[in-house]
Design a protein that fits this description.
Elements lengths: L10 H11 L6 H4 L8 E12 L5 E4 L3 E4 L5 E11 L3 E12 L2 E15 L4 E5 L5 E6 L5 E4 L10 E9 L2
Antiparallel strand pairs: 1-4, 1-10, 2-3, 4-5, 5-6, 6-7, 7-8, 8-9, 9-10
Length: 165
C-alpha cells in the first residue's frame, strides 16, 4: 500500500496510514489518547512563517518589468511551558523581515492551550493569536499543522516544539 499525503498532514493520519499498510488498521481512538496532560513541562519552540505571495510587478512597454520584493517572513523561537491543565507561559523572540527591513520583538506571558483526544492542540499566545498544532501522544514534541496556504492565501508554516529536560 502506498500512502501519499500533502505537506502538513497530521501525525495521526501518518500513523493510521502505516498501521493500515501493516494490516493493523485500528480506529483512530486506539492510536491516540491525548488530553491537556499530554503537554507538560518546558519545550524548545521554533516557528517559521513565510508569505509566498507573488511580487507586485509593473510592466512598462516595450520591455521593462519592475517588481517589489516579496513581503513577509517571520521566525519565532524560544520556550513554551505547559502546566498540564491548559495554561501556558511563553517566552518567545520574533524576527520579522519584509520590504521595510528587519524588526524584532518578544512575546512573553501567559497563554492557553487545549489538547483533544486525537492530539490536536490549539494554542493561544499572550497576543491573542491562535495556532493549530499536533502533539505526539508521548507528549515529547508538537508541530504546527497549518497547511500550505495557511490562514491566509500564500502563507506557509513550519513549526515545532521539543520537550526539554
Amino acid at each position: 500500500m502506498i500512502c501519499k499525503k500533502p505537506f502538513g498532514v497530521a501525525l495521526v493520519s501518518l500513523i493510521h496510514c502505516i498501521t493500515a499498510a501493516a494490516g493493523l488498521a485500528l480506529p483512530i481512538e486506539a492510536l491516540a489518547d491525548c488530553d491537556n496532560t499530554t503537554l507538560n513541562g518546558s519545550y524548545l519552540f521554533q516557528d517559521l512563517w513565510v508569505n509566498a505571495q507573488a511580487p507586485n510587478c509593473q510592466f512598462t512597454p516595450p520591455s521593462t518589468i519592475n517588481c517589489d520584493a516579496v513581503p513577509g517572513t517571520n521566525t519565532v523561537k524560544g520556550i513554551a511551558t505547559f502546566d498540564g491543565a491548559g495554561g501556558a507561559v511563553f517566552n518567545l523572540q520574533v524576527r520579522h523581515i519584509d520590504r521595510g527591513g528587519l524588526t524584532t520583538s518578544t512575546i512573553s506571558g501567559p497563554g492557553t492551550y487545549a489538547v483533544t483526544p486525537d492530539c490536536s492542540v490549539t494554542m493561544t499566545l499572550p497576543t491573542g493569536e491562535s495556532s493549530l498544532f499536533l502533539a505526539g501522544p508521548s507528549g515529547n514534541f508538537f508541530y504546527e499543522t497549518d497547511p500550505i496556504g495557511g490562514l491566509q492565501p500564500n502563507e506557509n508554516f513550519l513549526g515545532f516544539g521539543i520537550r526539554g529536560g
